[in-house]
């Protein structure tokens, strides 16, 4: 067995097939072994991966040959999360999946390559790997410095620069988002909240039955902590309760605010100095308190037929200027997210401005690290399946940042937030059948997939210059999308190192497939550009920019004058 192990190891070293795996990735380990690779196992205690000194190895070999010494460690995968890069792996990974019964031959081969620098590293975290050794590993599955892409605050900030890269409106694929620690953005959020409340009031007013005063009821408390895939209920309007207050002038105030805002959106204020509609018109504290009573406590409204016509006209014209009007709903729900946490930890939904501002007071300390909270508009009008909200996990791989090279995975899965629907996960094929039943058979290929591709590419281009680029590295990402009632996808976040721990038969197969195809993409394609890469397709490859040598170049521009004929 030792002789066989030595022969296998010698061949693997010659062919540069030594790998290391750190984390819960038994599929990667199994696939690489099947390809003839030999694993250099990581220390049991999870300390940094370092080369062991030759003398120490010699003593270990002597002990092993003499039958003494301690048995070889069976390293266990690490499940800690790098909070700074938006990982979404489960805190407690499936132990059954993570543990493998390595036979003696793999243990022996791993022992024999402990002095070798791995040619391939698949790790859940870069900060546990010795940096000097990391520079010598040819292929690594992680990129450093992903804050601008894989944290909520970083993504919010980087996407604000989209206009420098493409003529695409950020508001067509990313719900409005503000960093609470930034005072300018906090002021912009306050203005957005007020304007959204005014539009929401017009929507509530239109839910009247003829000219009778009506209101809405909201059974859910506004400060309830919700998980990442929980959702706010959407109550139907009900007749105002007996004795509930009526606000005859509230609709008129909302109409005036929306008229002024529409004038700004249509650039009617270009030739004159017009203050923001949120700084004039009405007393906002009083307006918001009355709006809360109508939207959440069943207070009534008084609406004339003329006002009804004005509401309809204004909302139609606002819809032409505001891409997110259709997903806003009428309850003005916002979601507060801690920047670097995942799996819905710490997320709070609220409908009241004062609750957000109270939290923001803890986010204005001098240090930029003190607060990383963002507030984002909640999608109140999502597409549901049998009244159950869902999101889509979409994988993609970046194999180079300079030039940017992105591969899109054609298979994805849907995740449901609650119990009413019996399936926890759904494949796109089943989803397309459901859409066909709604008369939207082509929505998946014509609207959703192109929308997801465009959103992913926009996010990558905005973060490109801030990510740590490293030749030979690659990374598998998981983007989360919510779908609006019009089938338009909305980007929620991008996760580095997405979990590969299956929770159903669907995800068990899909997670195994995407890992297999990722290895094909980053290993096989090096030698054969035409090899099979499974469900991956090239989404984007940036044109290479030639490097200019500025030293010694003649930079003078010469020309001749033009004369009239």
List the helices and strands and how they pair.
Blueprint: H1 2-14, E1 18-22, H2 26-34, E2 38-39, H3 54-65, H4 95-98, H5 104-112, E3 120-123, H6 131-134, E4 139-140, H7 147-150, H8 152-159, E5 177-179, H9 183-206, E6 214-216, E7 237-239, E8 246-247, H10 250-265, H11 284-296, E9 300-301, H12 305-321, H13 325-328, E10 334-338, E11 348-350, H14 353-360, E12 373-377, E13 384-385, E14 388-401, E15 404-416, E16 425-426, H15 428-437, H16 443-463, E17 475-483, E18 489-496, H17 505-527, E19 536-541
Parallel strand pairs: 1-2, 1-3, 3-4, 8-9
Antiparallel strand pairs: 5-12, 6-7, 10-11, 10-12, 13-14, 14-15, 14-17, 15-16, 15-19, 17-18
Q: What characterizes the major β-sheet?
A: 7 strands, antiparallel
Radius of gyration (Å): 29 Å
Tell me the CATH topology of the largest domain: D-amino Acid Aminotransferase, Chain A, domain 1
Give the mean pLDDT.
Answer: 80
**Number of discrete helical segments:** 17
CATH superfamily of the largest domain: ATP-grasp fold, B domain
The shape is: globular
- The helix content is 25-40%
Poorly predicted runs of 5 or more residues: 51-101, 213-240, 419-424
The fraction of residues in strands falls at 15-25%
Folded structure, characterized:
This protein is of the alpha+beta class. The protein folds into 3 domains: 1-42 and 103-140, no CATH class; 147-174 and 382-541, 2-Layer Sandwich (D-amino Acid Aminotransferase, Chain A, domain 1); 176-209 and 245-362 and 370-378, no CATH class. The chain is built from 17 helices and 19 strands. It has helices at residues 2-14, 26-34, 54-65, 95-98, 104-112, 131-134, 147-150, 152-159, 183-206, 250-265, 284-296, 305-321, 325-328, 353-360, 428-437, 443-463, 505-527, and strands at residues 18-22, 38-39, 120-123, 139-140, 177-179, 214-216, 237-239, 246-247, 300-301, 334-338, 348-350, 373-377, 384-385, 388-401, 404-416, 425-426, 475-483, 489-496, 536-541. Strands 13, 14, 15, 16, 17, 18 and 19 form a 7-stranded antiparallel sheet that branches. It has a 4-stranded parallel sheet with strand order 2-1-3-4. β3 (120-123), α6 and β4 form a beta-alpha-beta unit. α9 (183-206) crosses α11 (284-296). The radius of gyration is 29 Å and the shape is globular. Keywords: ATP-binding, Cytoplasm, Ligase, Nucleotide-binding. It is found in: Cytoplasm, Cytoskeleton, Flagellum axoneme. This is TTLL3 monoglycylase.
